[in-house]
Amino acid sequence: MADTFHLDLPDLAATEALAARAAALARPGDAILLEGPLGAGKSAFCRAFLRAAADDPELEVPSPSFTLVQGYELPLGAAHHFDLYRLSGPDELEELGWDEARDGLVLVEWPDRLGWLEPEAALRLRLIPDGEARRASVSGWDAARLRALVQDPGRS
Fold first, then answer.
1. Which of 29, 64, 24, 28 is nearest to 47 (CA)?
2. What is the per-residue pLDDT across 18-43, written as a single tens digit (0 to 9) for each?
C-alpha cells in the first residue's frame, strides 16, 4: 500500500513552499494530480510549482480554467498545466494534446476526469481548505521522493 502523508499548510506561503519542494524533485514524465474543491489552492500550488521550476518568481502563470491547458518550457523540459473542471471525461483529452504532454511533466487539476488515462505513478495531492489554511494529503511517487517532499525542515 502506498504511503500517504497528511500536512497542515497554515497559509499560502506553506503551500508555495510545498510546491517549490515538489518542483525541485520533479522529473520529465511525472504527473502531479491535484484534487480538492473550488478554492482549495490547486491553482496556487501549480503557479508556485511552475515559477519554482522555471526559477522565475515573476513567471506569468494564468489559470487554464478557460483554455483548459497552458504549456511551459522549463529547464527540466516541457510542462503542461491542465484544468479539467469543464471536461466530462477522458475522451475529450485527445484534442488537448494529452498524449504529447505526457512526454514532459503534467500538472492536472480535477484529475477525476482522466479516467483510464490517469498515470499510475503520479504524485497525488488532495487539498482541503480551512480558512487561510489547508490540510493536504500527499501520496504517490517513489518512497524516497515522497518523503523528501513532505519533510519538514523544522522538525527532526
1. 64
2. 999 999 999 999 999 999 999 899 99
Question: What count of Cα atoms within 13 Å lies in the side-chain half-sphere of residue 116?
Answer: 3
Q: Tell me, yes or no, if the pTM score tops 0.85.
A: yes
Question: Hey, what's the torsion of the CAs at 47, 49, 55, 61, to 10 degrees?
Answer: -20
> Per residue, what are the HEC states of the chain?
CCCEEEEEECCHHHHHHHHHHHHHHCCCCCEEEEECCCCCCHHHHHHHHHHHHHCCCCCCCCCCCCCCEEEEEECCEEEEEEECCCCCCHHHCHHHCHHHHCCCEEEEECHHHHHHHCCCCCEEEEEEEECCEEEEEEEECCHHHHHHHHCCCCCC
| Spatial distance between the Cα atoms of 59 and 43, rounded to a whole number of angstroms | 14
